[in-house]
Specification:
322 residues, globular, 27% helix, 3-stranded antiparallel sheet, alpha/beta, 9 helices
Length: 322
């Protein structure tokens, strides 16, 4: 049995018998005015963070969500895209699609604004999405891509890139790990399916996205997630896993490489009212400016004593240099 078949079976079981805390989401379930999340959807929240951000979802966007779970994030996306088939949900597991559709009936009872036809559920594979080219404003996946091995991950990201409109964004939440994992962990198909042993270092994760052509990357959050300890897992040391929330934007690739925002800021504190680097970046005196890692390095390389560059906070919330 392949690791992808193991994954399919794990989530078939999770659809038939909801498993609370399967992925131990790091976010509280948030509800907006007029939005009520049914209890069953909360119990089937199999992500590790959130991919629903209001600032991504302006102007009634067309949304794609891959790996539907119990439908919670599909419902949240529908809050911002109240149109027939405004949100497309894709999953390879029949039982998960059926459970999600059933949960929408409950959601309609609890939310007067919601209609089941706001969501278009489609049977499909993340490696071959049943979606047209350049048709999606916001694509999302939560705790799915970390399951894939390198070849499949490359294909899944390429598929997301294909279906996004120019300047569209891929919003993701996935576990990451900066420590090396032994082969026993890496090759354990069930641990991979449970979003543990497939976790990549952040730099490797980002490189997969920029290699696919995404010109702008935003790391929006980085949070504690899990511990793999020798008593319960095949490892000789404690392994610390984090979850990150990332947006990859289908911007043109800059000539000098991608803009990757990891939460750095530049602060000018010199004698003048501002500093202009003549490359499109103006620093107002004593006003922090979010900068991508590339710009942070370029400003640091100037050797000025009146510009402070912060370390990466791995929290970026808009604005910035580019």
């Amino acid at each position: 049995m392949s690791y992808l078949e193991t994954t399919k079976n794990v989530y078939k079981e999770a659809a038939l018998t909801p498993e609370v805390g399967l992925c131990c989401t790091t976010n509280a379930v948030w509800e907006l005015p007029g939005l009520k999340i049914p209890t069953i959807m909360q119990q089937m929240n199999y992500g590790c963070g959130s991919t629903v951000h209001a600032r991504d979802l302006i102007n009634n966007p067309k949304v794609l969500y891959v790996g539907v779970g119990g439908g919670m994030e599909l419902l949240q996306f529908s809050y911002f895209s109240r149109q027939k088939a405004g949100v497309i949900g894709v999953d390879v597991v029949d039982e998960m699609l059926e459970a999600s559709q059933k949960n929408f009936v409950e959601a309609a009872k609890e939310n007067a604004w919601f209609k089941s036809d706001f969501v278009d559920l489609r049977k499909g594979d993340a490696l071959n999405l049943p979606v047209e080219d350049n048709s999606i404003d916001v694509a999302a996946q939560n705790c799915l891509f970390n399951i894939f091995k390198q070849a499949e991950l490359k294909k899944a990201i390429a598929e997301m890139y294909r279906v996004l409109k120019p300047h569209g964004r891929l919003v993701m939440s996935d576990p990451t790990c900066e420590q090396p994992m032994n082969d026993t962990l890496r090759n354990d198909d069930r641990l991979r399916a449970l979003c543990l042993s497939g976790s990549l270092p952040i730099a490797d994760y980002v490189k997969m996205l920029t290699d696919a052509g995404f010109g702008t990357i935003e790391i929006r959050a980085r949070k504690p997630y899990r511990i793999l300890d020798p008593k319960h897992y095949p490892t000789d040391e404690l392994i610390y896993i984090e979850s990150i929330e990332v947006a990859a934007i289908k911007d043109p690739m800059p000539k000098d490489g991608p803009c990757v925002f990891t939460g750095k800021a530049a602060i000018y504190f010199g004698e003048e009212d501002y500093f202009d680097d003549k490359k499109g970046h103006t620093l107002l005196k004593n006003q922090p400016l979010a900068v991508c890692d590339k710009t942070a390095k370029a400003l640091g390389d100037l050797g000025r004593k009146d510009i402070f560059i912060s370390e990466s906070t791995f929290h970026y919330d808009g604005g910035g240099c580019c």
